[in-house]
Design goal:
It is found in: Cell membrane. Strand 1 and strand 2 (about 55) form a beta hairpin. It contains eleven helices and two strands. The two termini are about 45 Å apart. A two-stranded antiparallel sheet has the order 1-2. It folds into two domains: about 1-40; about 45-280, MetI-like fold (Orthogonal Bundle), CATH 1.10.3720.10. With about 280 residues, the chain is mainly α.
C-alpha cells in the first residue's frame, strides 16, 4: 500500500510539474502571438525602420541576425567538430584530456556577457576590427564552441566501438574508419547539436552588445567591417530604451514573434534531421 501511495504521489508531482511548465509556455506564446501578430505584414519584414523606429519594418535586423548566425557557424563548427573528433577518437584518456574536457564544460557555463567583454578586448580592440559584424560573429563563435564540442563528442560516443573495430579489421586506417564509418553514423547527432547551438546564438544579446550591433541602421549590413542590426538587440531597445516605448510596443511584440519563429524553425530543422535519421536506421 505504501508503495502504491508513493507511486501515486510521484506520478502526481510529475503531472503537476509538467502541467505548470506547459501552462506558462502556452501563456507566454499566447501573449506574444496575440499582441505581435497584428504587426506582422510583408511591409514589416521587408522594409527598414523609419521615423525614429516608430514605423517601418525590421529587414536590417533580420538580415543582420542571419549573417551573424552564418558567421558563427563558419567559425565554430569546423573547430568544434575537429576538437571533438580529436578528444574522442585520438586523445589518450589521461589527466590532461580530463582537464581539457572539464574546462570545456566550464566554458559552456560562462555567462554570455563575459564572452562579450572578451570579444571587445580581443577582436574589437586587440585585433582592431572595431565594432563590426565580423567581430560579433567571432565572439558568438567562441561562445558556441564549447556547446558544439560537447554535443559532437556525445554523438561520437554513441557509435559502438565494434563499428570502429570492424573497419580496422578489414584493413582501414584509423583516419579512414573515422571518415567512412564513424562520422556518417554520427552526423545526425552532430547536426542536431550544431543547429540547436546556433538557435541559441541567434537569440543572444549580451555578446553582440559590445562588439558590433547598432541601435539603428537604415539599410542591411553589406560588409563584414560594418555595424549591423540584430533581432534580439532591436527587441531590447524597443522594449526598454526607446523614447516612445508605448508607441513602439506593438513593433516590439512583432519583433519578438519574428525572433521566436526564427528560433523555432532552427529547432524544428534539428528535430527533422533526427527524425529522418531514426527513420532510416
Amino acid at each position: 500500500m505504501n508503495k502504491k501511495i508513493t507511486a501515486i504521489i510521484e506520478w502526481g508531482t510529475l503531472l503537476v510539474s509538467t502541467g505548470l511548465v506547459c501552462f506558462f509556455l502556452i501563456a507566454i506564446l499566447w501573449d506574444l502571438i496575440s499582441k505581435g501578430a497584428p504587426s506582422l505584414s510583408w511591409q514589416f519584414i521587408s522594409t527598414s525602420p523609419t521615423n525614429g523606429m516608430t514605423k517601418g519594418g525590421i529587414l536590417p535586423a533580420i538580415i543582420g541576425t542571419i549573417l551573424l548566425t552564418l558567421i558563427t557557424a563558419l567559425v565554430a563548427a569546423p573547430f568544434g567538430i575537429c576538437c571533438a573528433i580529436y578528444l574522442n577518437e585520438y586523445a589518450v584518456d589521461n589527466w590532461l584530456t580530463r582537464i581539457i574536457r572539464a574546462s570545456i564544460r566550464n566554458l559552456a557555463g560562462v555567462p554570455s556577457i563575459i564572452y562579450g567583454l572578451f570579444g571587445l578586448a580581443l577582436f574589437v580592440q586587440g585585433l582592431q576590427m572595431g565594432t563590426s559584424l565580423l567581430a560579433a560573429g567571432l565572439t558568438l563563435g567562441l561562445l558556441s564552441l564549447p556547446y558544439i564540442i560537447i554535443t559532437t563528442e556525445e554523438a561520437l560516443r554513441r557509435i559502438p566501438n565494434r563499428m570502429r573495430e570492424a573497419a580496422l579489421a578489414v584493413g582501414a586506417t584509423k583516419f579512414e574508419s573515422i571518415r567512412d564509418v564513424v562520422l556518417p553514423s554520427a552526423i545526425p547527432g552532430m547536426l542536431t547539436g550544431l543547429v540547436l547551438t546556433l538557435s541559441r546564438a541567434a537569440g543572444e544579446t549580451a555578446p553582440i552588445l559590445f562588439t558590433g550591433v547598432a541601435f539603428y541602421i537604415n539599410k542591411p549590413a553589406g560588409y563584414l567591417n560594418q555595424e549591423f542590426m540584430a533581432l534580439p538587440y532591436h527587441l531590447y531597445m524597443l522594449s526598454t530604451q526607446h523614447q516612445a516605448i508605448e508607441q513602439v510596443r506593438p513593433l516590439a511584440y512583432g519583433t519578438a514573434l519574428v525572433l521566436i519563429i526564427v528560433v523555432f524553425l532552427l529547432n524544428l530543422s534539428a528535430f527533422y534531421i533526427r527524425y529522418q535519421h531514426s527513420k532510416h536506421e
